[in-house]
Structure formats: C-alpha cells, structure tokens
C-alpha cells in the first residue's frame, strides 16, 4: 500500500510503498483511510523533536496521529493512533475509533478532533470551566485557538477575550464568538494595562495559553494581586509557540490566587482521555454537523506530501492529506 513515510529523522516524508498492515487483532479494526490531518504535533514527532519520541529508535515511520475513513462494514469513523495514520490502511485499537456523522466530510472529521483536544480538554479538565466563566485565550488566531473560542462559547462562557498578532485573524474571532480582542503588537505596558483593566472589570477565570513566553509573563503581571483577596484564576498551558520558558516572580504566586497547569499528552488521566473519545469529540462532531462549530482546512493529495511539508499553510487553516 501507499503511505507518507519519514525515512530519516528531520527530512520531509515521502510518498512510498510500504507493507500492508497485518490482519487486525481482536481488539483492533482496520480503517481504509481517506484523510489525515497534519499538525505541529505530527511535524515535531516526524522530526524527532517531541517529548513523546525523545527515546524512540530512529527508523522509517509513517507520519500522522489521527485521521478519518471507512471500516470494512462501510461505517464512517475518526481514529487516533501512535503508529502512523497517513496511509491507505491502518489497524487501530477499537477504543480509539469514533463514529462520524454522515454530513461531515472526511477532511473536517480528520481535522477537528486534535483542535478539540487542545481546547476542550484544557477548558474542561484543567481549567474546570463552568457556564458563566470569563476565558482569556492567549494566541487565539491559530487553528486550535479558533476552535477554543467556539468551544468556550458552547460551554457557556460569559466573556471571551482573545489575543494575537495577526490583526485580520484577530478581528475575525469576533464572528466566532469572542467578545474582546487585545493585540500582542501593543507596547508591553499598554498590553499589560489593557489586560489588568479587563481583569478588574470582568475577573478572568481561565487563561488558555497557546504561546507561553513573554506574553504569559505580561498576563501574569497583569493578574498579580495587591495584597488583598484576589480572584481565583487557572492558567492552562497548551502550547509554547513563543518559547519554552518564562521568568516567574514568586510574588505573583504569593500575592495571587492562581493555579498554573498544562494540558497535553501525558497530563490527562485515563478517565479524562476516555471521556475525550466517548463524550467530548462526539459532542463536537454533532456541533460541527449542526453548524455550531467550524474549522478551515487545506486539502492536499498524499502524492504531494514531500513538496507540501515545508509549505506555510494560511493562518487558521489545518493541513489535511487526502488519500
């Protein structure tokens, strides 16, 4: 069968012939793949730069961690697998397969779940979001940030504040449900003052962060208490697009009722991961089918995988490989 394979760590994947998967075991099903999304996670794994593969043996590997296709009985499904998904056929554990509504095309079905993992899991389990909460999404102009705005609205957020550098993309978030935008192009003092003013008027319950780095330092400064009782805020790190480290004053932790945690592979409990597949993703598929949540995709044939690997995808769109 054909697949997109990385033969050497750090090199672009190639469209290549590989051995067909074996007959599925009792706990597996075989999926005829029609679409597989390519995310920052997949690029990092393919390049050997993700913490989940730091000790892995360097050998040819099919890229991808999820996708959508058909089972042998014709059922339309989404699936997740760490064994590679950008191939004509994939064997998948039954617990990592989710039915897809007929009205959703394969590209949407392949692209949506990862963005949901990067938004709903942080809001629901790490942020403990409740209806009526105020949510600040830092770095919301990317694919997952745009989904986070829509998920926060579906979960009943009272007020959604978003930050980003792309002015056009930032303004478009107002159409998706954001209430207020704050540009990261502002001077540092102006940005901190703006966040502080928002927090004073509508205390921020959850910060969902995709950037880390300097912007988080400024947000933490803006949330800093003054020695009196402060509002409880949960800062959830989902990504690190602006850097892997920050400087954090101990005064912020002592003077502010804030909890900092992360949301990602390795940080979820088994029960939370089970709920992702049994409740959260199916709920978001239904919402997408009803037009309540949307994701933009850039579809490219698997035959073009090598040439498209280093291509910059338009902001806010998810690359989907069709098979």
Give a short synopsis of this structure:
This protein is an alpha/beta fold.
Fold and architecture overview:
This protein has 323 residues and is of the alpha/beta class. The protein has two domains: 2-116 and 270-322, Quinone Oxidoreductase, Chain A, domain 1 (Alpha-Beta Complex); 119-262, NAD(P)-binding Rossmann-like Domain (Rossmann fold, 3-Layer(aba) Sandwich). The protein has ten helices and 16 strands. The longest helix has 20 residues, at 270-289. The radius of gyration is 20 Å and the shape is elongated.
Give helix and strand order, one letter per element, not per position. Answer: EEEHEEEEEHHEHEHEHEHEHEHEHE
Based on Cα principal axes, name the global outline: elongated
**Count of β-strands:** 16
Number of H/I helices: 10
Beta-strand proportion: 25-35%
Mean pLDDT: 94
Features:
single chain, 323 residues, Quinone Oxidoreductase, Chain A, domain 1, Rossmann fold, six-stranded parallel beta sheet
Write the layout of secondary structure elements.
Layout: E1 2-6, E2 14-17, E3 28-38, H1 40-46, E4 61-62, E5 66-70, E6 76-80, E7 89-93, E8 97-99, H2 106-117, H3 120-126, E9 134-138, H4 143-154, E10 159-164, H5 167-176, E11 180-183, H6 188-201, E12 206-209, H7 213-223, E13 233-237, H8 250-255, E14 258-262, H9 270-289, E15 296-301, H10 305-308, E16 317-322
Parallel strand pairs: 9-10, 9-12, 10-11, 12-13, 13-14, 15-16
Antiparallel strand pairs: 1-2, 1-4, 3-5, 3-7, 3-16, 5-6, 6-8
Helix pairs in contact: 2-4, 2-9, 6-7
